[in-house]
Specification:
This protein is of the alpha/beta class and 244 residues long. Helix 2 links the parallel strand 2 (36-41) and strand 3. A seven-stranded parallel sheet has the order 3-2-1-4-5-6-7, sandwiched between helices. The protein has helices spanning 21-32, 44-54, 68-81, 105-133, 154-174, 192-197, 212-223; strands spanning 12-16, 36-41, 58-62, 87-90, 136-141, 179-186, 234-237.
Length: 244
């Protein structure tokens, strides 16, 4: 099934934090399988480069996920370019390492603004489009840090637990409109964020970091009609990290 083309043909997707790392993997796979994809990111140069690489199926829009006005502009641009949005991957996120003792209020608010409020604003922005087309799939990227405690990442863990709660509440509210909302909880994935933390694979039972494309295949499934009966769920993909 992984190599079957056209799993999301005809869909219009937005991926936040889509210019690099795990977000770029989501963008590439959705485009490969037939979706038109808007790459939303603060990184203009990388976003444009990826859009040019993928051709007519991709378009870059610079987006600060914490700004409601920029979200409104993104939905209008997407509609004029591709049509109404029916897939959103809320992937944008930041991590600042600190404990509950050492976290400053400024740093805590910064993480919550991007990871939690950015996710909220994204969901809110795309609901009218999804209601219009009579379907939708919202995929919120949480984390294994949203399932278990994680040392020295107090605000990040708090934000990722919040994403799970918002996902379940939104799934209940939006089910009557055939809009599904699910969360993905990746473990340690080989991205720039993980590299900056200098983590090791010793705590992961499978003995390796995940590949961004492996996470993207799960997002592709949730974006497709293969997952039409799935909503409000936490989809853990962490190499067994949260099993012990």
């Amino acid at each position: 099934m992984l190599d079957t083309p056209g799993r999301v043909t005809g869909k219009v997707a937005v991926v936040t934090g889509g210019a690099h790392g795990m977000g770029a993997a989501h963008v590439r796979l959705l485009a490969e399988h037939g979706a038109c994809v808007v790459i939303a990111d603060v990184d203009k140069s990388e976003g444009i480069r990826l859009a040019q690489e993928l051709g007519h199926r991709a378009h870059f829009v610079q987006l600060d996920v914490t700004d409601p006005d920029q979200w409104r502009a993104l939905t209008e641009t997407t509609r004029s370019r591709f049509g109404p949005i029916d897939v959103l991957v809320n992937n944008a996120g930041i991590l600042l390492s600190h404990t509950v003792e050492t976290a400053t209020l400024t740093d805590f608010r910064k993480v919550i603004e991007v990871n939690q409020i950015g996710t909220f604003l994204g969901m809110q922005a795309v609901i009218p489009s999804m209601k219009e087309v009579g379907r939708g799939s919202i995929i919120n990227i949480s984390s294994s840090a949203g399932a278990v405690g994680i040392t020295d990442n107090f605000a990040y863990a708090a934000s990722k637990w919040a994403v799970r709660g918002m996902t379940k509440e939104a799934a209940l509210e939006l089910a009557p409109f055939n809009i599904r909302v699910n969360a993905i909880l990746p473990g340690e994935v080989n991205t720039r964020m993980i590299a900056d933390l200098h983590l090791t694979v010793e705590t992961t039972p499978l003995g390796r970091f995940g590949d961004p494309r492996e996470i993207a295949y799960l997002a592709l499934y949730l974006a497709s009609e293969e997952s039409a009966y799935t909503t409000g769920a936490d989809h853990v993909i962490d190499g067994g990290y949260t099993v012990p």
